[in-house]
Write a structure and sequence with these properties.
Diaminopimelate Epimerase, Chain A, domain 1; 17-stranded mixed sheet; 39% strand; globular
Amino acid sequence: MTAVIYYLADAFTREPFNGAQVGVFPKAESLSERQMQQLAGELNLPHSVFLLPPENPQASYLARLFTPYREVEFAAQAFIAAGFVLAQSGTVAESAGATRILLETRRGLLPMHFLCDSTGLKQVALALTVEPIVDSFTPPIEELAAMLGLKSTLIETKRFTPKIASCGRPFLIVPLVRAEAVEQVVFDFKRWSESTAPATAAQEILLFSPRTREPQADFRARLVGPNIGPKEDPPVGEAMPAFCGYLCSFPQLRQGTYAFTVERGSKSSRRSLLNLEMDHKGQDKLSLRIGGKAVVIAAGTIRIP
């Protein structure tokens, strides 16, 4: 029988029982792929990350990422949570300044930066380069409004417009005129299935508003879609590379480096704050950083026969 240590962490928050829930297995070298998938299903969290010895000699760890149903390439919240677990367990030193390691992932090597001061770890940030694909072919505004349960006037069409953006996984990105509209959305599967949306590759809709009620946030975001339950408010970290590519597709966004914060959820529904920075150079490739805090709330051992 094998005993495996795991941690539960809340990512993109400073407060326990907020943010995105992640299972972290920092010493997963004894696990098979089948066992990793079984453990992810047992925890039944949006994502579980398993750290193994790297295959690439430049990397510190090989990170494999699973939902309860399959292995996936990327979810920023899972890697941020893993970084805080490594720091709390003493594997990565919390010294003033910045420490950098490399994670080997299905997306390639991802630099992970640990930003510390005299009080300890303040933030973990991932650096990645993506090649966004942005398409203006989306369902008409009336169809979008119907499947979201909104009036069509609540969909933004001046500063931003709906588009499909992908950095490996496509998202239908729909801007709304105010933060309250993001919360009011009730996804209608029947209206979605009757629309042109299923003909697109995007099976998830990223809603956002550039108007927020919280001073520390620049955007409010939420994911809905046919595979997301009506009462679910899943993490948005996986959609952030596509969101950055989406923003860069608009001509009013001049070339330069931009830093902004995205808020998901609320104080009563696991609020998250994601810090993003991107270098918009008007090129096919986009360099960006996704950072945030995390709280390690539990540790335990699972025994595997």
